[in-house]
Amino acid sequence: MLHSLSATINGPSGPLNVVFGEGTPEQRLSCCEVIVAAFAPSFPASACVEHEEYLSRHPLSLNKGTRFWCISIADNPGTILALCKTIRRRFLVRDSESIHEEDGYCIGTVATHPHYRRLGLATLLIKHVAEWLDGPADAAASMLYTSVGDFYVGHGWQMISSIISNITNLSGDFHSGNRADLPSTRLLTNEEIPALCMRDVADLNESFKKLSVRPDEVHLAVLPSPEMVTWLHEWGDFLNNKRGGEAPYAHGAICEAADTWIYWHHGFQHLAISRVRTPPGVGLGSPEVLASLLLDALEEAHRWKFPKVVVWEPSPELISAMNLISKKVSVEVETKPRPNSITSLRWKGSDETKKTTIHLNEVYASC
């Protein structure tokens, strides 16, 4: 194992010598067995391995952009006790002195083998990952999404308030209805998305230039780059190909007249709105435009038999759009604080001296 460190823990049957380090290709199947046991018991571990190999060819994952970190038994490295994954991120940062881009990571799939839980392995794992982030990785910041935010606060991550909207009741007879009173939209092709992402990045830079920032503040956003957005698209495409023998062909929709678009990706049991882009300088978008785009997403979810569509961090205008379509097509909308996937941020060295505001805290920024 690369970057390996050894330790002794109190195991279920007495002292246990373990090793922390970067996972090897030979450990990949064992890592995936722990992952599926924790997050997707019905998903075969062999398919999880295929999924990781597929994503490893994506630009975001190249050159060790994605790494597995695991704790294994010292004299039996094939037995994985705990693991997580780090995935490269590019952040845009605005402080009182400048606007600049920084390298960082997202931490995901933190899991412990069922037989070795409550032994302090997660604490050991995250402690060493944080040391790697501060040291060899030289990461300006890291993000993770969790249902146990208090645990990560003890290791230097700050919990950021987050909300979610769930659109449900996509029944078998769902139909998006008459759209004559709504702006016209169309589905995006995959070939169009990278150029739209670059426009989005440019808009974000311009908006950060206009921010007024005090010395005790810092603003941060995960760049909505083509690599970031399409990584999630491919993540979901593989799953749907395995599930139904077909990969999705549409990942978003656009209202060209309003210069507004959305992306979505396919999850295990829902369709997620990855990103909602509205033109800069004109508020946060027309509810009617956003409603029409959301109807495109609902049609995609219905086509793939997903029971719900999820939206992270919806703007007031987007919430108004969801309320509009709930009356139009009789779906149910609930907006509430996120009970899981709580956004948590850690600056290098656990620096908490500045008040942080996260922009574009949407699903595209997650793992």
Can you characterise this structure?
The chain has 367 residues and is α+β, with helices and mostly antiparallel strands. The chain folds into two domains: 2-88 and 105-139, Aminopeptidase (3-Layer(aba) Sandwich), CATH 3.40.630.30; 163-337, 3-Layer(aba) Sandwich (Aminopeptidase). The chain has helices at 28-39, 45-55, 121-134, 149-153, 193-209, 226-244, 287-303, 316-329, and strands at residues 2-11, 14-22, 66-73, 76-94, 99-112, 141-146, 158-160, 163-168, 186-187, 217-222, 252-255, 260-266, 271-277, 309-312, 332-337, 342-347, 355-359. A hairpin with a 4-residue loop joins strand 11 and strand 12. The longest helix is centred in the middle third of the chain and has 19 residues, at 226-244.
What secondary-structure arrangement, pairings included, does this model have?
Layout: E1 2-11, E2 14-22, H1 28-39, H2 45-55, E3 66-73, E4 76-94, E5 99-112, H3 121-134, E6 141-146, H4 149-153, E7 158-160, E8 163-168, E9 186-187, H5 193-209, E10 217-222, H6 226-244, E11 252-255, E12 260-266, E13 271-277, H7 287-303, E14 309-312, H8 316-329, E15 332-337, E16 342-347, E17 355-359
Parallel strand pairs: 5-6, 10-17, 13-14
Antiparallel strand pairs: 1-2, 2-3, 3-4, 4-5, 4-10, 6-16, 7-16, 8-14, 8-15, 9-11, 11-12, 12-13
Helix pairs in contact: 1-2, 2-6, 5-6, 7-8
